Amino acid sequence: MFPARTLQTSLRASAHQFSSIPRTAAINGVRTYATPAQETKPPVALFGVDGTYASALYTAAAKSSALDQTSRQLNALGDVFKKDAKLPIILRAPTLSAADKGQIVEELQKVAGGPGKSDIIKNFLSTLAENNRLGVLEGVCEKFSTLMGAHRGEIDLVITSAQKLDNKSLQRLEAAVSKSQYSQGKKLKVVPKVNPDVVGGLVVEIGERTIDLSVSSKLAKLNKALTDLV
């Protein structure tokens, strides 16, 4: 049986009120929504199951003029994944019953903000549950953020370090890159990541460019040079 108390502890972190829209029939395995006649496509193409769902949700929200609201809701859900490593395991559990899934949707909706003027997030979560896809929710949150960044004309600035960087360091890096040719004149969206494998230094990714200033990279080059000498 699904550990309801564990989920409630994990999910009742923050709640805000947002609005949603009603769902309609499923098309190609992804539920669409009742919307105005105008069609709004995602700004970039995404791949994978989570990308498909994120794109469908983006289209529904865009047609309903609810992109910012939906983005805030998914950000709230995404924050929970960052705080609780057990949540993805719970959502991917193959033994979840229909009652378990219903309770999960209810708790997730509370985190996202509870009922509003409409039900886009509630129905979206229900669709994931019905299709046994709750396990892709974390990826949907991340990829929806990518879509919103493209919608706002932003470009991701991914900064990977061995240890978490403080805000001041991140701001200095953002300012430096924004003045370079790599920013392409676009607004930067800083995405900090931690990977102990880099040992020290940084790996900076912006668009399709990667600037590897990590200690691990320097060690790899040194090892190669020593190997070539042998």
TrEMBL record:
<keyword id="KW-0472">Membrane</keyword>
<dbReference type="InterPro" id="IPR000711">
    <property type="entry name" value="ATPase_OSCP/dsu"/>
</dbReference>
<dbReference type="InterPro" id="IPR026015">
    <property type="entry name" value="ATP_synth_OSCP/delta_N_sf"/>
</dbReference>
<dbReference type="GO" id="GO:0016020">
    <property type="term" value="C:membrane"/>
</dbReference>
<dbReference type="Pfam" id="PF00213">
    <property type="entry name" value="OSCP"/>
</dbReference>
<keyword id="KW-0813">Transport</keyword>
<comment type="similarity">
    <text>Belongs to the ATPase delta chain family.</text>
</comment>
<keyword id="KW-0406">Ion transport</keyword>
<keyword id="KW-0375">Hydrogen ion transport</keyword>
<keyword id="KW-0066">ATP synthesis</keyword>
<dbReference type="InterPro" id="IPR020781">
    <property type="entry name" value="ATPase_OSCP/d_CS"/>
</dbReference>
<protein>
    <recommendedName>
        <fullName>ATP synthase subunit 5, mitochondrial</fullName>
    </recommendedName>
</protein>
<dbReference type="GO" id="GO:0046933">
    <property type="term" value="F:proton-transporting ATP synthase activity, rotational mechanism"/>
</dbReference>
